[in-house]
Fold:
Amino acid sequence: MSAEIDPIKLMKQEVGKAAAKRVQSGMIVGLGTGSTTAYAIQFLGDRLNSGEIKDIVGIPTSFQAEVLAKQYGIPLTTLDAVDHIDVAIDGADEVDPQKNLIKGGGAAHTREKIVDSLAKQFIVVVDSTKIVDSLGSTFLLPVEVIPMAITPVMNAIQKLGGKPELRMGVKKAGPVITDQGNMVVDVKFEAIDNPAELEKTINNIPGVLENGLFVGVTDLVLVGEVKDGQTVIREM
Structure:
């Protein structure tokens, strides 16, 4: 008797593969962070190593993405060495009907926002559990904060109606430290009625580096779904 395949894992694999298929030879590709994007990086490496495509280079958004790209044989470059990014592929923790996002579950949202916003096309890859009617429904809003400013930033966020909590490490004593050496505050808002306004307001708090709201950046969302026992890809 064969082991039953996890439907969430299957959706992530198929949507990652669908995104990787959109990359063409010669492209500069932003490589996102997270479990779904990891499959996209894997399949992109498979296409490159098989000769199906050639002459692509990646720009990683995190140490995780960098390690995966090297593992699967994808050459890397930096923003200093290029004048454009053709396509960026990244995941999301929530996606609303306007294709606005909450990102930052992997504490990489600052680098992700830089790379994703520079891409000519930004493709988001998610499974169907990440689709929500309103941002903040299922996931807290991550905010990257300079360590010395943690207390005043949390106080300022409380005045905005948020409930901030310092993100603590797993299998590590103390808080999560980002690739930039900062900390992450996860914030619960009862409702995020105006994501664009909240994104700017939080980023204007002294000590905040970047928050996980991505507004008006996404070009295409590929959603993995299971229908009648089959995995299908829906476009938003």
